[in-house]
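Researcher: I'd like a structural prediction for the single chain below. Treat it as a standalone chain; there are no partners to consider.
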Amino acid sequence: MTADTFAVANNLIPMQGKEYDYYWAAGQLPTGVAKIAYTFPDGTTANAVVKGNYWLMQHREARSWTPGSATNRPKIKVTLQRLNGSVLKEFRLIWGEQTCAQISHGC
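Model: Treating it as a single chain, here is the predicted structure.
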């Protein structure tokens, strides 16, 4: 299990005349992992929804996107937890490599 397993897809979505970063990721739940959380540059944490052997995470940034806002921001942190809540592993996603997991097209 590597950070690539938890890469996010990301698009700008329009809302009320502004654009917001929208992220999502999904997959089969790795053995030993009970919870998956993503902490984003805006400081919020999105917990993946786990159903059976699969998980899904969705997040929209609180602040609207502005040109140049993608530079020098903190990496997205992924935290994997066991059923008892202890941290199993943490990853920091590399911008442009692990934040562009588009199946239908590139960034």
